[in-house]
Amino acid sequence: MSDFVRVALAVCAKDIRVEHRSRTALISAIAFAALVLVIFNFARDPATASREALAPSVLWITFTFSGVIALNRSFALERENGALDGLLLAPVSRSAIYLGKYLANLAFVFTVEAATLPLFVLFFGVDLGGALGGIVLTAVLATAGFVAVGTIFAAVAVRTRFAELMLPLLVLPFLIPPLIGAVQITTRLLAGRPLSEIAGWFRILALYDLVFVTLCLLLFPSLMDE
Amino acid sequence: MTVPRPASPSASPPLLEAASLERRFGAFRALRGVSLTVRPGECHMVVGPNGAGKTTLLRLLAGLARPTAGSVRLSGAILGRDGESRRGIGLLSHQSHLYDDLTSVENLSFAARLYGSPDPVRRARRALDAVGLGGRADEPVRRLSRGMVQRVAIARSLLHQPILLLLDEPFTGLDPAASAQVAALFAAERNAGRALVLVTHEVHEAWELATHAHVLVRGVWTSSGLREGTLETFLARYREGLHE
């Protein structure tokens, strides 16, 4: 195994272990997701907006905001006791540190999404049926890009005084493209539309992932310079 | 507390060469033209009032911050962004670099993994034994006292056997017995040919270890060189420097 991968896996395993001990971010993010779904469910006027029309947007808004909560913890734990300096001082590639944080964040956000999806089905009475596989693939593709951008902005925001406030402000504009794509795909999947209608959106999500994961890996070392 | 000093000053080539370091934060100049040459087996004590630039100096020497002007060389190579140039550095800062939810041995074995140690857990346990915390290795850091956390942080900074140790207030929070143990540990490192830069307000402990003494006031050396005379005369010079 190369040093790059070894370091990335060590950082990822450390983050997962820390979260496993505290469970703070995971429980907060899942509770937040449940609350968002409850609020949307009761705030909706059944006479003007059907569940079917609203469901895809609600699902992705819930995923996005609860994901941001999960991402906030990523570098917050490195801020405590100056642990980030300990990481940066190590003779390792800083891109490997980024990759490790990225993989851990992916695990967190996927866990939050996996816990949120059944709640979404429960509150919105949506029959996922044959759309489940497509929605999972959409979640994987959209989350991969969203977490790539979120991880790098979490690293930037943690050095500011109001990191928890800064992260959503920095990251949300960059999430518009994958969010649009994910909502479009989910709408069509739930309506039982043919694959040919959504293939283009899948390609856009995959391209977004490729561009932003690569860019973030390249930019992270420079962003860590004081 | 008396710690033996090396028999003779080292004549080896410099391990660390910091030349005309300057660091600005906006219009504020935290460091102005600070140079420092450290050879193997030397211990450089740096004292100065709060806000003198001591921590900034250590961060520049560690490669955690870039100088606005000047350069830092470690074993002849410019300290840069590439990881290898930082391998020889051990840093003990104001902050412990530890994760509160992990145990001491988990913290140190994670650090050992970053440094490519073949047996990180064994290395971590050995480092904790060296600071007298082998018996508390499996407790989460958040349950340890301030002094114990400081000792775990010291073990972390020594874990990868760095050739240059940068120590910011290493005696903070330690009781007299722990201070003596840690001072003996640093003396052993120095006598083994490693170099130390020790920033401190605890001058009595540091004086025993030091081969060189420097006073930093408002970002410049007001006194710098071999440790000579007594601690009292050094402190008198230090106080004079504050009013210049």
In short:
The complex is a heterodimer of chains A (226) and B (244). Chain A has 226 residues and is an all-alpha fold.
What report would you give on this structure?
The complex is a heterodimer of chains A (226) and B (244). Chain A has 226 residues and is mainly α. Chain A has one domain. Chain A is built from eight helices and no strands. In chain A, helix 2 (24-43) packs antiparallel against helix 3, helix 2 packs parallel to helix 5 and helix 6 (132-157) runs parallel beside helix 8. The two termini of chain A are 31 Å apart. Chain B is globular and about 50 Å long. The two termini of chain B are 32 Å apart. Chain B has 244 residues and is α/β, with parallel strands linked by helices. In chain B, helix 3 (120-130) packs across helix 4 (146-158). Chain B has seven helices and ten strands.
Helix-strand blueprint:
The complex is a heterodimer of chains A (about 230) and B (about 240).
Chain A: H1 3-22, H2 24-43, H3 51-79, H4 83-89, H5 94-124, H6 132-157, H7 163-190, H8 199-223
Chain B: E1 16-25, E2 28-38, E3 43-47, H1 54-62, E4 69-74, E5 77-78, E6 89-92, H2 104-114, H3 120-130, H4 146-158, E7 164-168, H5 176-191, E8 195-199, H6 203-209, E9 212-217, E10 220-226, H7 231-243
